[in-house]
Amino acid sequence: MWFPGGGWAETMGKNSRERHQAKRKADAGAARRRAAWTPGSQDPLGSFGPPPAPFQPQLAEQLIDQAVRAQDRRNAAELDRCRALLAAAPDGATGIQVVNRALLTALLAQVESAWLRGWQPADLVRAARREYTTRHGRLMVDAIAARMRGYSRATVDQAWQSQLTALDARVWWEHDDLYPTVWGERQGLDRAEVIATAIEVLHLLATLPRIQQVGPMPGGATPAASTPPADLDQRMLHRVRALLAKAESTDFPEEADALTAKAQELMARHRIDHVVLAATTGAQDQPVSRRVGIDNPYEAPKTLLLQVVAEANSCRAVWAKRYGFSTVVGFPADLDSTELMFTSLLVQATRAMTQTKPSLDRYGRNTTRSFRQSFLTSYAMRIGERLKAATEVVGQELTVSVGAVALLPVLAARDDAVRDAFDKQFPELTQRVANVNNREGWASGRAAADWASLHGRQAVARE
């Protein structure tokens, strides 16, 4: 249609061209911003303009990496910014699922990396609880369970399987893309708290140092043939556990003594059976390592108790204070005995300690902590004396019955093998001196140790 002068049509055509030019200019600007964006940019989600792109897994991964680095550098402002961006993931439910998937993927990768540096499932959960809270420990358990889906049970060492069972590590959620969301609901946390907890666990995993490898990694264990000695070990341990459970529950010292004396006899003779079997069949049993958790409070005297029990069972122990565990080196059956005896004696010590009430000092101050610290230290040292004496008696009796000429060289060789394995793993150690500053606690602990039942097997002979 023609209009006089063509003014209206010309104006409309000009406006249309300007709108198209503005749109092309905006698109070009957005493209330049996408090309120039880096993990350090201040507006990765386009908060002050058009977003650089739909929220992609790569962006979530970059933000998670930035958050972990900020946590490591203690850069609170950067950490808060990254966590806020992750919590407010755009694109609604789709963006939240992208972040969820990226978080779980990062956790699985860091768990695997920690395993390669020597950490086992129980170690990781204990470290999370000690460094942060039990909530962080629960997140670590789930990450471990999710990572274990990639391994056949037949290729997982029995020690790992036992730890996973004790931790109740299982995949309880329906879909990985929903896991952080449903985990937060289960823990009663909002989205920001879930993100913060996950970043803290990731930072812990990324910064754990390399430690001694204990046993094969998942996927590296081979199915062990079932042998009569292995079956015998399980039957013996079952009987000993039953005896010790009764001994720990009774309030009558005489009954506890009788029950634990029987347990001690079973384990002592069991060790002789192993030694004789090795001497007659040429079996090449070798020392291995195992970690035993040492929990607060009063870790130092508890560690001392484990040490004297380990030595009585021809094992050696060293404490990693920061991470709350001791590594015990010895032959497998001896490690079982060490754990059984240590656990049982610790139950007795704790019960005796809490029943013995400390008094106030001359200034009227509460002495509970110093009393209990001294109590457990004295208890451990006295138990060590009793174990050493019992070791000599049991060793003499069993050596005579079996034959010293054939038995003593084998026992000496096993002790040498344990010492060599220990020295190889821990060439440099720092010695700690027991801290005792409460005379009443020392005396009470020593008296309680005299009453304690020796739960477990003693070494048959020592050099």
Automatic annotation (TrEMBL):
<feature type="domain" description="DUF7168">
    <location>
        <begin position="303"/>
        <end position="391"/>
    </location>
</feature>
<feature type="domain" description="DUF2786">
    <location>
        <begin position="235"/>
        <end position="274"/>
    </location>
</feature>
<protein>
    <submittedName>
        <fullName>DUF2786 domain-containing protein</fullName>
    </submittedName>
</protein>
<dbReference type="InterPro" id="IPR055592">
    <property type="entry name" value="DUF7168"/>
</dbReference>
<dbReference type="InterPro" id="IPR024498">
    <property type="entry name" value="DUF2786"/>
</dbReference>
<dbReference type="Pfam" id="PF23771">
    <property type="entry name" value="DUF7168"/>
</dbReference>
<feature type="region of interest" description="Disordered">
    <location>
        <begin position="1"/>
        <end position="56"/>
    </location>
</feature>
<dbReference type="Pfam" id="PF10979">
    <property type="entry name" value="DUF2786"/>
</dbReference>
<feature type="compositionally biased region" description="Basic and acidic residues">
    <location>
        <begin position="15"/>
        <end position="27"/>
    </location>
</feature>
